[in-house]
């Protein structure tokens, strides 16, 4: 019988929560979870397809695992598997390809799983593919981190899919339309996370702010989920990412007034030039985004703000990029996540003229990453000398690190009792943009 499995995740926090859900399926069936890289009877790769690099990394990992352990039963799932199962099946040694919905019922698709051994089962000549269309039904696979993980912060999936039509993005194709987990199940999952000893819950989804669930004639939005979660015995609640047009005044007010919600927002901008932003088909303009960031800075004490931005979108000139740089530099933000535009099949953007050379995309990405380092260092430095509550995670090389509510990475001298505890620390010195030294008091 199959006795061991390793799982590996690429991509977003949502993928991590779903990998955890798959790990629980194996664990509930008596199969031991081992670290990625160990030789195991089964290997599962939960894929991403947001960029060409993500696709390439998926294929590299699959080939590497098969080369090092040719007898392992290889399962590939996730967004890349949903969109391009044929490409994955062309890799010799892949046994099973599961789409976005199928991953939550993977034991339904593994042949003779409980009775066959590796030696008698053998490798398949060609992978079995189970990928269903996503335009049917309202299914939301439940997913949350729990005791199969070593994390101190747990991801809780409350929403899946996306109804937006951004011109560069394939995620709606890979994930389907926007749909939300029943609010009762959200609270049940959150309670399971709390019972497992986690101190922080991170709400995640493809478009988390678009949470929308109707039950008995009552419509629940994200703010209703937040009100319910606040009543639970949890130390921290963090929103992983939220679209700017969905970050309402009610949410801002609740975060500011409650001691449970983290004063940290991660908000996609994607571009700081008005014309390019319009070409991207985003649901706001630069004026709206400018006002929102300043509103957060004014209303939420010591708020940390991260921003997603894409460089090299078709038609982006040096002037457009300069506008983006100046716009970002003017905002009171604490860091950037910078992505180089990647051509994606079946998107509107790939049909546009004005392709930006790859070398220019890399150069512009480097410039914005330097700006991010500058912003983060300024943000970290502005908090030195202050006290902050730090959720410490794991220790290494005599040091332990953790996170403040506003997403400052803090390192302190290691003590075992610090692990998975929220402790007051004085922030003493910023080490560039990497972390702030802290002394537990």
Structural write-up:
With 441 residues, the chain is of the alpha/beta class. The chain has helices spanning 13-28, 52-68, 79-83, 85-89, 118-121, 171-175, 183-195, 222-230, 249-257, 274-279, 286-299, 318-330, 358-382, and strands at residues 4-9, 32-34, 42-47, 73-78, 94-98, 128-130, 153-157, 159-160, 179-180, 200-204, 212-215, 218-221, 236-239, 264-270, 304-311, 335-340, 387-396, 399-403, 409-413, 422-431, 435-440. It has four domains: 4-130, Methylthiotransferase, N-terminal domain (Rossmann fold), CATH 3.40.50.12160; 138-262, Transcription Regulator spoIIAA, CATH 3.30.750.210; 266-382, Transcription Regulator spoIIAA (2-Layer Sandwich); 387-440, OB fold (Dihydrolipoamide Acetyltransferase, E2P), CATH 2.40.50. Strand 18 (399-403) and strand 19 (409-413) form a beta hairpin. Mean pLDDT is 91; it is low at 115-121.
